[in-house]
Amino acid sequence: MRRYSAEFKAKVALEAIKGEQTISELGSRYGLHPNMITNWKRQAIENMAESFSGKAERVRSADDAQIKDLHAKIGQLTVERDFLAKAFGRCR
Questions:
Q1: Is-contact 44 14, C-beta < 8 A?
Q2: Which residues of 34-64 are buried (b: 16+ CB within 10 A; e: fewer)?
């Protein structure tokens, strides 16, 4: 199954919302099944209000905090790995 980027889905959904081409024409143009384009269009319309509600910003902020925590954990594990590698090297 092919995976499509969010940017690509948004581009196709926006074109479908504009209505300058039919869903079938867009399907032929991008090599997609019309049902897929219809689903992406519906999702775009349903989630449009979220972009104005600030919810997306809160989710992005939570993601940023999680990324910060994960980077800290990576740093900690790197230090521990290096320490253990040196200690193990001395035992040989």
A1: yes
A2: eebbeebbeebeeeeeeeeeeeeeeeeeeee
* Other C-beta atoms lying within 10 Å of the C-beta of residue 27: 19
**pTM for the full predicted model:** 0.56
Give the residue extent of every domain in the chain: 1-48, 54-92
User: Is residue 44 pLDDT above 70, yes or no?
Assistant: yes
| 75: enclosing H helix or E strand | helix 55-91
**Contacts of residue 13, Cβ cutoff 8 Å, sequence gap at least 6:** 37, 40, 41, 43, 44
Q: What is the pLDDT of residue 55?
A: 64
Per-residue pLDDT for 72 more than 90? yes
